[in-house]
Amino acid sequence: MRLVLLGPPGAGKGTQASAIVSKYSIPHISTGDIFRANIKNGTELGKQVEAYMKKGLLVPDELVVSIVKDRLTKEDCKEGFLLDGFPRTVNQAEALDKELKDMNLKLDRVINIEVGKEILIERAIGRRICKNCGATYHVKFSPPKVENTCDKCGGELYQRDDDKAETVEKRIEVYQEQTKPLIDYYKEKDLLLNIDGTKSIEEIFYDIVASLEGDF
Ligand code: ADP
Ligand code: ADP
Ligand code: ZN
Q: pLDDT tens-digit profile of 156-174?
């Protein structure tokens, strides 16, 4: 299965991605995670992207596209993949189409998680991430069993630099301007699955699986 997860910042893409990739045994490709790992490891790429991310701006298309292209040619993508947070501009979507065409492949579905601004802000601001394994929590909606400690690995939790109130607002604006046009882009290609992202984590996952399997 070749899937894209689309949605504004804080919609629940990463949360659903973890459940989807484990159900379908496909790799989870999150460009945001790739960038954060590079920043943490002090790589050249990390240095190039850090300032954009801190301000809540998109990283330039050239940087993102080459990373994704490279990742898609890896052995584990042969049977499918889930792209989370890519594409984010029409230009990136066109580059992805071209790359897949060259590989003789096609996307199966684009899952669009819909959530309004108020909820997005509350979700993003309360988000906490494990320093060690990257697992995602929420102080109110999905708290760890022990405060500030990852259930899975015992790692310490932290708040992303770009999950502060002003930056979240900026990211939502950037989404409206640069990413939202992808909804029409994929609707025209008849790939879009709209999912109500205001429900619980479990209900949303159920809806995604049901619509992927044509069970509606
Ligand atoms: P979100 O929770 O906002 O969906 P991500 O972890 O997907 O966050 O992305 C965090 C940041 O990484 C973005 O605000 C942007 O700066 C950068 N980024 C991630 N993916 C892309 C992309 N496809 N194009 C440009 N920038 C990206
Ligand atoms: P994205 O990858 O789209 O930015 P995340 O999956 O990281 O979003 O979710 C953002 C925050 O909201 C996280 O703290 C997560 O635990 C929480 N969250 C995700 N889905 C839901 C939901 N359906 N209801 C309540 N909180 C949620
Ligand atoms: Zn952990």
A: 999 999 999 999 999 999 9
Q: Which helix (H) or strand (E) holds 55?
A: helix 44-55
Determine whether 71 is an active site residue: no
Tell me, yes or no, whether 166 lies in a domain. no
Structural domain including 182 reads: 2-27+74-115+172-213
The C-alpha angle with vertex 61 and arms to 53 and 188, in degrees rounded to 5, equals: 115
Question: Is the Cβ–Cβ distance between 59 and 53 less than 8 Å?
Answer: yes
> Dihedral angle at the C-alpha atoms of 90, 176, 164, 149, nearest 10 degrees?
-60
Q: How far is the CA of 136 from the centre of ligand 3 (A)?
A: 8
Confidence (pTM): 0.96
Instruction: Name the closest ligand to CA 123.
Output: 2
CB 137 less than 6 A from any atom of ligand 2: yes
Measuring CA to CA, which residue among 143, 135, 20 is closest to residue 84? 20
